[in-house]
Every structure is written in C-alpha cells, then in structure tokens.
Amino acid sequence: MAKKHILIVPGDGIGQEVTAVGKKVLDKIAARFNHEFTYDEALIGHVAIEATGDPLPAESLEKMRNSDAVLFGAVGHPKYDNDPSAKVRPEQGLLKMRKELGLYANLRPIKLFDELLGASSIKPEILKGADILFFRELTGDIYFGEKGRKNNGDTAYDVAEYSRYEVQRIGRKAFDAARTRRKKLVSVDKANVLESSRLWREEIQKLALEYPDVEVEYQFVDATAMILIKEPTRFDVVVTANLFGDILTDEASQIAGSMGMLASASIGDGTGVYEPIHGSAHDITGKGLANPMASVLSAALLLDISFGLKEESEAIISAIDQVLKKGFRTRDIADKTTDPSMILGTDAIGEEILKLL
Amino acid sequence: MAKKHILIVPGDGIGQEVTAVGKKVLDKIAARFNHEFTYDEALIGHVAIEATGDPLPAESLEKMRNSDAVLFGAVGHPKYDNDPSAKVRPEQGLLKMRKELGLYANLRPIKLFDELLGASSIKPEILKGADILFFRELTGDIYFGEKGRKNNGDTAYDVAEYSRYEVQRIGRKAFDAARTRRKKLVSVDKANVLESSRLWREEIQKLALEYPDVEVEYQFVDATAMILIKEPTRFDVVVTANLFGDILTDEASQIAGSMGMLASASIGDGTGVYEPIHGSAHDITGKGLANPMASVLSAALLLDISFGLKEESEAIISAIDQVLKKGFRTRDIADKTTDPSMILGTDAIGEEILKLL
Ligand SMILES: CC(C)[C@H](C(=O)O)[C@@H](O)C(=O)O
Ligand SMILES: CC(C)[C@H](C(=O)O)[C@@H](O)C(=O)O
C-alpha cells in the first residue's frame, strides 16, 4: 500500500476538464489497489494571473515542491497570443515551474493504440509498429537564455545556450532508456549551423563511448522532421534540445493518431510533473468535447515513473485499450467509419474508462 | 529572344549529378524557344574547400554577382558532420553566399503532381488539393547571429535575432504572393516564448493592416508542424523565420511525395539562386540513382522568376508531368505498384524529360 500526496494543477482551457477525468482515474486506482492518495489543487497560467496577477504564485510552487507528483493540465490563452507586447503571460508560469523544479527531462512516448491505426493522416502500413520514446531537454536552450530588444526596440533577440553538463544529464537518461528498449538512439541537432548543436553532438559522442551496446545515429533536425513522417518505425529513442523537441514531438503526435492521446512526463531533480502534450485548446473549452485520454495516460505515467506502480499503470493503459476496442471514440480520433453514437464527450468516455478499472 | 548568362554551381555529392540534368534542360529550352543562354561553373562547399581551402572562394562569389541567375546543387559532406569541432565547413559557403547576395527570401512551392498521390506516406485523401507556398526568411535568425563558446568552452551559444526591417521585407513578399493566390497567409512563430517571435508577430500584424483582403492566421511552430501533416490543405502561403522554415519545409516535402521533387528559389537584392531542397546525399552519390527532378524544377523556377519566361517554365513542368503520367519513376518516388522496368536512374529519366521538351 502506497501513501501519496498528488497535486492537481489543471491550468487553463480544457486543462480543467481533462485533469478532472485524470484525477477520477487515480482515485479509482487507489480504491482498487488499496493505496491512499490525498490531493490538493494549485493555480497556474491565465487562471493564476486572473486570481493573483502572477502566472505561477509562490503558493503553487510551494505546493508542487511538497507533493509526491503533479498532474498537470495546460496553460495558454488567446488573449496573450494576439498581443505580442503583453508583459505577463501564462506560459511564463509553465517555464518557471520547469526551471524551479529542475524538470530537465521531458519524456514523450509515441505509440499507437492498434485500434487507432486508421485515425492518423499517415498511412497505416507506414505507422504499423512505430514506437518512439522522445527525450526533450526542458530547462535549457533558447527557452531560458537571455532575451530582449536592442537598437531602440528595433531588433529582438533570444540566446540559445547549452552547457556540457546539461547535455550529459539528458543524454544519459536517453542512453539508459535505449538500453532497456531496442538499443537505438537518434540524437537530433543542427550541428551544421549552430554552435550549441556542435557542443551537443560532442557530448553525445562522448557518452556513446560509455554505451557501446547502443547504436547511435546523428540527424539534423530538418531531416528528422522529414523522416518521422516518411519512416517512423526507424526510430526507437530520440534525444534532442528543448526547441527541436517541442516541434518534433508535436509533429510526431500524428503518428499516434491524435494529440489527444499523448502524455508526457517531466522529471529531474524533484517532484515529477505529468501532463498531456496538447495545449489549452480554447476553441473547444467548456464544451465537454476534449479527449481526456492524454490526461488519463499522464496519470498512468505518474504512477509508473514517480511511484513505481507498474501494475496500476498498466491497468490504466489496458482500460483505454479496451474502451477503444469497444469502439468508443472522442471526436478527434473518430473517422468516417465511426458509428456516430459511439462518439462520446469528455465525461462520458471518462466513465467508460472508469468502468473498466 | 532572351540573352542570359547562367552560372552552374553543382557543389557537393549528388549536386553534381542533378544540376547536370538541370543544365541540359535549360539548353533544350534555349534551343526550342530561341534564347541564347551562356554558362559558366563555380565551386562551393566541400569541393571548394578541397580545391582552394575556402568553402566560397572570392572567384565563385564574383561569378555569381556577374551572372543573371544561379542554378545551384547542394553542399555538405559527412566528414564534417561527424567532427563537430571542424573550423572550416561546407555549409559556411552556402550561408555566406546567401548573405553576400542578399538572398533574404527563400520560396518553396509544395505541390503534388497528381501521379504521385500514392507515393507519399500521407493518405491520398488528406493530400488531395494541397498547394502551399512557403516563404522562409533566409539571411537572419539564429543562422547569422553571434555564436561561440564561453565558460572555458563549457557552454556554447547562438543568438537568434530579427530586426523590424528584416521581418517587413519578407512579410511583404509573402503578402504580395498571397494576393495572387487564395489570399490566405499563415505566419509561423513561437511568440509564446521567443522575443524575436514577438517582434516578428508585431510586424506581420502591422503589414496585415495594409492587406485587408488577405486573411492572416498566426500559428506557433509546434502546432504548424502538426497541422501540416494532419490537414495540409489548410495552408496557402506560409511565412516564417529561417530556422522554422528549414524544419517545416523539409517536413512538408512529404506532402509532395518526396524531397526529390522540390525546388526552391532564393531571391532578394541581386542574382537569384535556384536549388533543390534536398541535400548532397552522399549515401547515393555517384551511383546515378538521384532524382534530378528537383533540379529541373529549379531551372523552371529560374526561368519564371529571374527571367520572366513563364511559357518556358510551364513547358518544363508539363514535361515532368508527362514523364510521370507515362509511368516513369526514380527510386524515391516509386511504390509497390511501380513496374520495376519503369524505375530509371538520374540520366535516363533526364533523357525522358528532354524528349518531351
Ligand atoms: C506552451 C509552450 C510554452 C510549451 C513549450 O513550448 O514548451 C508547449 O508547447 C509544450 O510543449 O509544453
Ligand atoms: C545545409 C544547411 C545549412 C541548409 C540550411 O539549414 O539552411 C539546408 O538545410 C537548407 O535548407 O538549405
């Protein structure tokens, strides 16, 4: 029996709706496997700005530090997107959380549920067998370097930066994971142009000497963006910098049929944070249409990685698999062949998952 | 009758093989339409380093400046890719050429030939009707900002930078093009994180006021990477920064079935440069396997954009269309249904194109 304290941080938009389902699933797991999970909630993003003026209030950060794991929703609001000069922005809360909690490794497993082979825009025969684990570096790069304006505001700049240590620690996590999988690692950079990529490649090359059993391939990010779609089965573990990882994992979501199916784990020095890779999606917020499965799968990752509860984690994945096999879908993963009566909203598909746990 | 001087710059790897076909096609066009094209050649990239120690010898640059247009191949060599500490690199030649010639706008039309609807890894029903024109900024961003090492070589950095003027001039080209097409422009940035993207968005917003007839959408680069695969028909004209454009256009090549079918035009203050978007591809160099159609289509863009020879340009595109309709393929665009005897090498498919001109 595990006793754990879980912080729910729904954030903005559909973050609220999907984490509500994720939390119910955690509750059900606790009951079934006889664990004791306690919960608290905290604010981040636009909702935190509205309530306190701060996208990551000190109280939220404190609660994160004092919990055993965080189930996270999403941040963002169209209001700021269309106002490039806004000084306080929801995303600052997310980035500060990553930095303050030392969440330097973002794991994004990309794997298609059999039933969704037809839901992707990519041909089924290309997707079959695709199973990729991304390691995106999450606390460095152009996200956290100096940025600003100069020449009387006429020029804007952002500095991309990596230290050897930063590359080593994410690289090591990726090599370790490759060892437990198919022993293939692709390191993605733009070393033909960027100095930070050249340092990245140097460090991965050094690490490779320590992992002679892992086959390493170096790719330029433009080539990877192409090969991911052309031949997704070529990849096992992929390791890359913060910005490249942001772009490539969103692209790779199409391999899994929909963004609504993808969870991620951000880990590092302290509390782990688990979240869907989709955003706040204000266009469908409050309509009960959002696919909660990425949040439910985030809960599964949380149980596995932060609590070491493998069986519990697998029970969740299997419940989702069964729900899909029964033919239930949310809008985003339905296709022409889906019986319209099987297309459910956020809560209804959540109930189907809960029934199977 | 046009009198023009064309510089052929094959560069590295398959650049040599494919530009040879591109040049033959230009020759044939000159004969058929009664133009006078004269030619010269110049070195760049690895071959230039080997011959002179310099990836862009002054003589090559001089020749470029004095020609009416440049037909370019590719640069790059695996030797440097695996040696992140190499000081002289083939790509420096390419970047210097872009900067010195003021080639700030890179146009990449992405359009599928009907016959290749099956050659892509993306489903035909998703691709049908896709027709995108990318404007990639080519002389700014993290490609040309300050870069180096600090903290005793322990940290590497690259500065991404945009001035208002740089965004305006590429933005204007994109808006102008949208006006002649379906009047839809997507501007891609990462304004939720990057200061240079916020300035980018500010300038595009200002330009939008001058083009009320063009519908503008702002997307974050991670979302674009996803939507390109999910719903490619949503795009008409896309404008973006140098690095994002590099990644997104390679990804988008899958919409056209293969990279081997995509040409690009780099234009700006002086001589225009026309080149395939594929690279030097040393794995197939010298084997006569490369698809020369991207180089031939680059020649078509050259005639259209630099010389204003629309009919000649269309004759080339139509010849390629007919070659494909006859069932001829190169390896990269063949699929399971292709009769093996119809899969031709570089020169043989070049001959088929020439026959139809
Ligand atoms: C919201 C945004 C700042 C964030 C990022 O770019 O990291 C998001 O896209 C993600 O991938 O978690
Ligand atoms: C070779 C490389 C430097 C170049 C780039 O990144 O611009 C290439 O990928 C391209 O797109 O022309």
From TrEMBL, chains A, B:
Positions that bind Mg(2+): D222, D246, D250
UniProt-annotated site: Important for catalysis, residues: Y143, K190
Q: What class of enzyme is it?
A: oxidoreductase
Keyword Magnesium among UniProt keywords = yes
GO molecular function terms attached to this record: 3-isopropylmalate dehydrogenase activity; magnesium ion binding; NAD binding
Q: Which domain of life is it from?
A: Bacteria
Q: How does it assemble?
A: Homodimer.
Q: Which residues form the Isopropylmalate dehydrogenase-like domain?
A: 5-353
Annotated compartments: Cytoplasm
Which InterPro entries does UniProt cross-reference here?
IsoCit/isopropylmalate_DH_CS, IsoPropMal-DH-like_dom, Isopropylmalate_DH
- Quote the pathway field: Amino-acid biosynthesis; L-leucine biosynthesis; L-leucine from 3-methyl-2-oxobutanoate: step 3/4
* Catalytic activity reported: (2R,3S)-3-isopropylmalate + NAD(+) = 4-methyl-2-oxopentanoate + CO2 + NADH
Q: What does the record give as the organism's lineage?
A: Bacteria, Pseudomonadati, Bacteroidota, Cytophagia, Cytophagales
Instruction: Provide the alphabetized UniProt keywords.
Output: Amino-acid biosynthesis, Branched-chain amino acid biosynthesis, Cytoplasm, Leucine biosynthesis, Magnesium, Manganese, Metal-binding, NAD, Oxidoreductase
Q: Where does substrate bind?
A: R98, R108, R136, D222
Please give the organism.
Aquirufa nivalisilvae
Which biological process annotations from GO are given for this protein? L-leucine biosynthetic process
- Name of the protein this chain belongs to: 3-isopropylmalate dehydrogenase
Give the enzyme's EC designation: 1.1.1.85
Q: How is the cofactor bound?
A: Binds 1 Mg(2+) or Mn(2+) ion per subunit.
Q: Briefly state the protein's biological role.
A: Catalyzes the oxidation of 3-carboxy-2-hydroxy-4-methylpentanoate (3-isopropylmalate) to 3-carboxy-4-methyl-2-oxopentanoate. The product decarboxylates to 4-methyl-2 oxopentanoate.
Which cofactors is this protein said to need? Mn(2+); Mg(2+)
What do the Gene Ontology cellular component annotations say?
Answer: cytosol
Please state which protein family the record places this protein in: Belongs to the isocitrate and isopropylmalate dehydrogenases family. LeuB type 1 subfamily.
